[in-house]
Amino acid sequence: MAETIFVGGGGEGYGAAQTLLLKYANRHGLIAGATGTGKTVTLQILAEGFASAGVPVFLSDVKGDLSGLAKSGSERFKLHAAFTKRAGTIGFDDYAYEGFPVTFWDLFGEQGHPVRTTISEMGPLLLARLLELTEAQEGVLNIAFRVADEEGLPLLDLKDLQSMLVWLGENRGTVSLRYGNISTASVGAIQRQLLVLENQGATQFFGEPALELSDIMRTETDGRGRINILAADKLMAAPRLYATSLLWLLSELFEELPEVGDPDKPKLVFFFDEAHLLFDDAPKALIDKVEQVARLIRSKGVGVYFVTQNPADVPEDILGQLGNRVQHALRAFTPKDQKGLKAAAETYRTNPRFSTEDAIKEVGVGEAVTSMLEAKGAPGVVERTLIRPPASQLGPITKGERADVIAGSPIAGKYETLKDRESAYEVLTKRAEAAAKEAEEAERREEEAEEAEREFRRARRYDGRDVGRSTSRRSSKSPSLGDQFAKMVVKELTGTTGRRLVRGILGGLFKGR
Questions:
Q1: In which domain, by residue range, is 319 found?
Q2: Residue at 453 is within a domain
């Protein structure tokens, strides 16, 4: 297998060939540029390069264009002549069309295998971000997770969390003494946000079977890595769900994979497209978590490449960790744009042959300003580069072709059927039903005791002579005063007393375990 990935080269007025060293590919990277400047093609050719080198890839297909990775390019394609000429210009002598092993995924299960996780695996921090909760509401969510964990109540899907919040609201007085104040307003706000999430289609995302990381880290028998493509065109309608789901996956990789130090090539490369969605209005705690993951996950053998329109979309502390960079053209029409352009140019190691700032403004479609890590991980001098043409099809494949790829996948059928094992919702429902039954039984016993007391008093008052002495005077259909009073007592018990008993039993459910 190759030790480098050929990114592009130059002709007249351009620099030397640019290659990405696989041993430094886990030092992360950045692909930036305005819309229409070629970011998607750069992402495509890097995915091809990693797959050819035996490195599995995970990327999101925001515009629906990247499914073409599964199919070989064709000489009948309208840009064939231009691609061939570009390959000759940059010295890409072994350029040939080729399709790649692809696995399609989809949070909604429509354009690929379903991607699922459980509420517990998502955790309160990411879930609070997804739901846009306030600090107080996030505190209540943390309490819900804590109590569920202590009581052995699995939180797998949305209805589990919803039922847990109902229980907290009903028992907030008792729970608040131990964990802090739980207001009904906060519980209600979280429930409303869960309803919004449910309406966005997130019901499919939470549940089992949950995604196994090994299924996105597969390699083929011929040594090539599989390219995992997440359908994100529909998902982008819920940008917070998109960003949080990808961050969850990145966090799972960070927590589950073993330390491998600095491998000869990455175990997985993760492309985070539309990266600005991750950082827009994000609380500091979340930014700190992303920074921690970016800093430490490289020792797990995972390279993370952020794809965005402007480098300024990525926080400075994270941007400083992105060693391999491909910068497509930036537009600078306003003073703010010009300031951002200057800041972007200053992050590169200067080349005395040209102005980096001018080059970023001038490069055309399919061209970029690049800087790759060199020996000992030092950033290379910035160069103007013609990006190499893709070997796979440029543009999407047909629905039928996608369906064939999904059907022929090595994991076909593994995630398609949703499983609903016993979890918090079922456990709490059973306890509530048992409590209601016990309350009903207690009411029945109390009614019987009341009836026995009335019979005893009636027997003493009438000395037993009321039995059978006036059947001719009173119709059996006319209720006696005693019967009417008994019905009133039963009605009262069924109402206030019954509810009081149920509340008392529900309130002591966890205490009695």
A1: 4-116+211-407
A2: yes
